[in-house]
Specification:
globular; DHBP synthase; alpha+beta; 33% helix; two-stranded antiparallel sheet; 237 residues; 7 helices
């Protein structure tokens, strides 16, 4: 897969390069009040390997979520978590899963990375997973950060913009005492394990700029390709 070029030197551009290559990035939830603004470590789901999963577990809470489009989880028959109240402001957690074959207990970095890669693989079937498991899918909102500007949707949008499958592994960075990490904690993690940092607000600005460009191209009569669908302009077979 290839990805469109970002703005040279920007946090977003560096993050997209890293995700495309399978490296982790730090994502700051900066659109909430400061006390609640935690940081997450994000890795493209289709590129995560054992070593990267081990790092993800080591510098975070250890609860690894996988942000994915709701329609993908529906196709895999992974339902919402029982007892969910449907609050649109909260993450849409689904039933945790493991890969059904080729793993052991499901908890190791090797096993969890294999499960995440399978969730990101468009050829995976519902039968490829057992439920419950050790990897926690999140049903990201249609429209990504344009619908809900929080880490799960931002992580999914980042992977898509990086030219990867729109499936992201993410976990909350923590401090030495195990508390949810602030911007300073995320910066410390990124300094110790070199990785680019990007903010949810940057992802939102990027998506809004995309929409503005699309509307401008349509207004000028140029065809635009979005997600494989041609809009406006001259139809092609």
């Amino acid at each position: 897969m290839t990805r469109p070029a970002g703005t040279a030197g920007s946090g977003l551009s560096a993050a997209l390069d890293a995700l495309h290559a399978g490296r982790p990035v730090g994502l700051l939830d900066d659109l909430v009040p400061a006390p609640a603004a935690a940081g997450a470590i994000v890795v493209a789901g289709d590129r995560i390997d054992t070593a990267t999963m081990a790092l993800l577990v080591r510098v975070t809470s250890g609860v690894v979520a996988v942000a994915a489009p709701a329609e993908r989880l529906d196709a895999l028959r992974i339902p919402p978590m029982p007892g969910g109240h449907g609050d649109p402001g909260r993450p849409g957690f689904a039933v945790a899963v493991d890969l059904a074959t080729g793993i052991t207990t499901g908890i190791s970095a090797r096993d969890r990375s294999a499960t995440v890669r399978a969730l990101a693989d468009p050829s995976s079937s519902a039968e490829a997973f057992t439920r419950p498991g050790h990897v926690l899918p999140v049903r990201s909102r249609d429209g990504g950060v344009l619908a809900r500007a929080r880490p799960a949707e931002a992580a999914m949008d980042l992977c898509r913009a990086a030219g990867r499958e729109p499936v992201a592994a993410l976990a909350t960075a923590v401090d030495d005492a195990g508390g949810a990490g602030s911007a300073a904690v995320l910066e410390s993690v990124a300094a110790r394990h070199p990785m680019p940092l990007v903010r949810v607000s940057e992802v939102l600005s990027h998506r809004r700029a995309e929409i503005a460009r699309v509307l401008g191209d349509l207004g000028a009569g140029r065809g635009v390709l979005i997600g494989g669908t041609a809009l406006g302009g001259t139809a092609v077979a």
